[in-house]
Amino acid sequence: MTQQHVDGILNYGGTMTVHDSAVGSNAKVVRGAAVPRDRAAERAQVGVITILPLETQAVRLALGLRSERVGDLTFYRAVVNGVSVAATMALEQGQRSAMAAYANLVGAFDPEITVLAGIGGGIHESVAIGDVILATEMVYYDLRKVTPTGTPRRGQTRPVPAAVGHAINAFLTDLDPPRRLTIADPEGTSRSLMVHAGPIGSGEAVIADEDAAEIAFLASFNDKILAVDMEAGGLGQACHERSAASGRQHRWMVVRGISDRADRNKSDTPQRVAAWHAAQVLRLLLPYFETKR
Fold first, then answer.
1. What is the pTM of this model?
2. Which stretches make up the Nucleoside phosphorylase domain (predicted)?
3. How many domains would you assign to the chain?
4. Residue 257 is part of a domain; what is its CATH number?
5. Quick one: which of 40, 50, 163, 273 has the fewest CB in 10 Å?
6. Which tens digit of pLDDT belongs to each residue from 133-153?
């Protein structure tokens, strides 16, 4: 076989791949910023958003999550009961920060369902401190019209996706006794609680007054509203709009441990127990979200 010496590129009809190369006299390669690694293989089935540090601590401990840095953000990850989970904590309380946390979670792990997990205020007589609420519908109460004669509110409702509703029903059906759980805290103390499914109210207010106009409005809008929070409206709206942009449904749900009655006796003392109960119920729910990709 005759050998040839060539300065440049020699190809006899085969295929080749050239990376980071230049051709020609005095050619140079100028490399730009590194391309982020492909995270497609790391997609999570379930994403979790928490708001307060104590909520994040409860979820991390209950699910056995480990921290992972992605750029300037911290996420928490694990495979729990065969379900891949990625969690993040919002920068602060409120609808806008919850939407930003969701965008961060989608950008890094693109979960099939995103769960808002933490504490909330119970406003229905059937709900006790320490109980857990699984939201089947969100009522956003902060839409209103300011007029010279008053400020009427305009509630906006958004049900959870049907698949999430079916998962909640299946979970509740499997509970024995019905809708009741006994959960031990990390110190070993066991507590009995009820798991409720129903609508929740969401807005920008921290409510600590049973006579607040927000409570009265929610009771008149739907007398079955169980609890209130400050972030569910943002998550529901973000998932709704993301579904239109991506061409597939982005599912969401809310798990709230009841830490107070949204009244003047509101206290921080029960928050840690309520957050733990929510995290444990989330752990039990995970197998009901498992899907085949």
1. 0.85
2. 48-285
3. 1
4. 3.40.50.1580
5. 40
6. 999 999 999 998 999 998 899
* Dihedral sign computed on CA atoms, order 293, 64, 288, 135: negative
Q: Is residue 219 part of a domain?
A: yes
Length in residues, the chain: 293
For residue 22, being part of any structural domain is answered with: no
Residue with tokens 């006794």: 177
pLDDT at 45 over 90: yes
55 phi-psi bin (left φ>0, alpha ψ -120 to 50, beta other)? alpha
Those residues whose C-beta lies under 8 Å from the C-beta of residue 26, and which sit 6 or more positions away, are none
- Structure-token pair, residue 89: 């904590």
pLDDT tens for each residue of 81-92: 899 999 999 999
pLDDT band at 246 (very low <50, low <70, confident <90, very high): confident
The mean of the pLDDT values for the chain is 89
Cα separation, 124 vs 126, in Å, equals 5
Query: In angstroms, how far is the first alpha carbon of the chain from the final one?
Result: 52
Query: The domain containing residue 203 runs over which residues?
Result: 41-289
CA distances from 101 to 35, 118, 138, 242, 246 (A): 23, 14, 19, 13, 18
pLDDT tens-digit series, residues 150-166: 889 989 999 999 999 99
